[in-house]
Design goal:
Number of helices: 10
Strand order of the largest sheet: 2-1-3-10-4
Structural class: alpha/beta
Largest sheet: 5 strands, mixed
Oligomer: single chain
Shape: globular
Helix content: 25-40%
Distance between the termini: 45 Å
Number of strands: 13
Length: 293
């Protein structure tokens, strides 16, 4: 069976994690990993928010699946467009790792006035401007190691990355978690997803071995709110959902539709309705002044 993956070290590591996980569940399939360059890896100058609607990091992989050049692809779920290409489906979502963002090399509060922070995310830029308007931001693209090298070279004073990526690569250096209650993570951050053809019943059955029910429930809510917003992967919107005893805890922030940021904190019941998803989206858009679920 052929697995497609981006060629970055992190993408390959995530693919290895998938193979290891499914083999531990008793899968005897032989996997061949094929590296594929994505638009997001090739074009390191365009702004990611301008590329979000084309699936900058998965488009080439998706096309390879549809052409049957590969059978499945392993991706960070946050990079998969909300509206996927026809004929494709997310067959598995692995158990989510840390969803938080981290800042290196010091806590946000300790950065001196006027310091420069490196990031390619408009969500992170918006949150930084909101929380520390004295700071400057500098767009930085490339893989984790490239970004860390630029930090070490002094191109900026601090760097924000996803904690899950650093953990998966085994990178150990001073890093500080940005509280997800206020510095709300990107939709599906920390989750690894496996795409396949929607009519491939054999593969879909196999992928059930590593599909995590709770993670799927949580990220489905996150992606449903994004869809109701009409927002893309790189929009200045953060949504994080946790499953608790009382229901689904939803925290969200949007800088996309109103002059001032809109934050939402709400608990969805386990048997939530799509009308409640729509109500959260309307509130984040600034269409309603109160969020009643």
């Amino acid at each position: 069976m052929k697995i497609g993956s981006r060629e970055s070290k992190l993408a390959m590591r995530q693919t290895d994690m998938f193979v290891d996980a499914i083999q531990k569940q008793g899968c005897k399939e032989k996997f061949d990993i094929i590296g594929i360059k994505s638009l997001g890896d090739i074009d390191l100058t365009s702004s990611l928010d301008k590329m979000s609607n084309v699936g900058a990091f998965v488009r080439e992989l998706d096309e390879a699946i549809l052409k049957k050049e590969i059978d499945i692809s392993v991706n960070s779920l946050k990079d998969i467009p909300i509206d996927m290409q026809e004929g494709l489906v997310i067959g598995a979502i692995m158990r989510r790792n840390a969803p938080e963002d981290v800042i290196l090399p010091c806590p946000l509060a300790q950065l001196p006035e006027g310091a420069t922070v490196g990031t390619a995310s408009v969500r992170r830029m918006s949150l930084l401007k909101d929380m520390r308007p004295d700071l400057k931001t500098k767009t930085v693209r490339g893989n984790i190691h490239t970004r860390l090298d630029k930090l070490d070279a002094g191109e900026f004073d601090a760097l924000i990355l996803a904690k899950a990526g650093l953990d998966r690569m085994g990178i150990e250096r001073p890093m500080y978690i940005l509280d997800p209650k206020t510095f709300v993570p990107a939709t599906a951050q920390g989750a690894i997803a496996v795409e396949c053809r929607e009519d491939d019943k054999k593969i879909l059955e196999m992928l059930k071995l590593v599909d995590d029910k709770v993670t799927r429930e949580c990220v489905t809510i996150e992606r449903s709110i994004m869809k109701a917003l009409g927002a893309g992967c790189s929009s200045p919107v953060g949504i994080n959902v946790r499953k608790l005893v009382k229901g689904f805890d939803v925290k969200a922030v949007s800088y996309a539709f109103t002059e001032r940021p809109v934050r939402a904190e709400v608990t969805l019941p386990y048997d939530y309705k799509q009308e409640q998803i729509a109500a959260i989206a309307d509130y984040l858009k600034g269409n309603t002044k109160e969020l009643n679920i």
